[in-house]
Design goal:
about 350 residues, alpha/beta, Rossmann fold, 2 domains, six-stranded parallel β-sheet, 16 helices
């Protein structure tokens, strides 16, 4: 019997299908999702929820499943099997009970977030459910609370006092940072010439504007001299060793990633002793979390240090190898503004 209407084209064995694609599938003209169902079924018993979510996103983007919502409904328990524990950790100081619906909704949020790496969202896949709750702001973020729990008025007073002690050169460096947008700045200064003093004043100024400044250093002793200082490896989860392909171990949806999303300035002291791969790994981590393919995801970064002191340590390395491993040989150096401080001490114009 020949088709006499558009509906006839969607009819097979007396059943009219809602779409031409489903009619073609019923006719056996299309591949079905059996291969992707088998893939997920084999991975589910041995892979973590995080790995399954990444696999599911890969199937969505590269494999064009016919009914992705059916795959989701069949495997959502395995895909989200780690999320109840994660949510309990995130809301550990709040009296909240999570239902299965909450867990699956959070899983959809993370899948949607992962799809952004492919330039897609769940809206690009018809019939796939979308998250209904707001998950992008995590309450009770201890790291964010630590970086915003300051007396603003005291910080303003301290900042004004410190700026009054600046010489002209130091004031120029301070203003260059405060006026910058999405820049990298290197303050090159010898020991005892006020570099740490400038860094602490910068941090106070950022905090007094109720913004977030992260102060890190390449050594524990240097970190102790910074207000709220931490070692860079501790704060940014830098891998050891840092290879030229390494990325800082900052996971989406964690308290640290939420902190970075709110960060305006990073102050990184004694950076010359770091291998260029270390800086590059943090840069790539910021780009991934902030979803901006610019240095450090658009966060202003202030490097400090003195290249005349120790460079990165290369075991049994020659001088040329140590120089090749320095920040100056990294891919970010050409985009970094350099401010060279004199040997004048704080408050000295002579």
């Amino acid at each position: 019997m020949n088709a006499e209407s558009w509906a006839d084209l969607r009819t097979f064995n007396g059943h009219t299908y809602p779409t031409y694609k489903e009619a073609c599938k019923a006719l056996g003209l299309l591949e079905d999702d059996a291969e992707w169902r088998q893939c997920l079924a084999e991975a589910a018993p041995i892979q973590s929820g995080s790995a399954l979510r990444q696999l599911f996103c890969t199937i969505l983007f590269h494999c064009a499943p016919t009914t992705p919502e059916a795959l989701w409904n069949e495997f959502k328990y395995s895909i989200c099997n780690d999320l109840e524990h994660r949510l309990e950790n995130i809301w550990q100081y709040r009296d909240r009970v999570f239902t299965d619906g909450d867990v699956y909704d959070y899983g959809l949020y993370l899948i949607n977030d992962n799809l952004k790496n492919f330039g897609k969202t769940l809206q690009d896949f018809p019939n796939m459910p979308e998250p209904q709750q707001v998950w992008n702001v995590i309450p009770g973020n201890r790291l964010l609370q630590e970086e915003t729990d300051y007396d603003v008025e005291e910080l303003k007073r301290r900042g004004d006092e410190n700026k009054a002690k600046f010489n002209a050169e130091q004031l120029e460096m301070f203003n260059a940072v405060m006026d910058s947008m999405e820049n990298m700045i290197f303050i090159h200064s010898a020991g005892g010439c006020g570099k740490t003093f400038i860094c602490n004043t910068l941090a106070s100024a950022v905090w007094s504007n109720e913004d977030v400044a992260l102060c890190v250093a390449s050594s524990g002793i240097a970190a102790l001299l910074l207000e709220g200082g931490r070692t860079a490896h501790s704060r940014f989860k830098i891998p050891i060793p840092a290879l030229d392909t390494s990325i800082a171990n900052i996971k989406r949806g964690t308290q640290l990633s939420q902190l970075l999303l709110q960060t305006k300035v990073v102050i990184w002291d004694e950076v010359p002793i770091q291998h260029k791969n270390v800086i590059a790994s943090v840069d790539q981590g910021f780009r991934d979390i902030l979803e901006k393919d610019v240095p450090f995801g658009g966060v202003t970064v202030v490097f400090g240090g003195d290249f005349q002191q120790n460079l990165s340590v290369i075991q049994w390395g020659l001088r040329q190898q140590m120089i090749a491993a320095s920040l100056k040989r990294g891919r970010l150096w050409d985009q970094t503004q350099v401010h060279i401080g004199s040997k004048h001490e704080i408050g000295s114009d002579s």
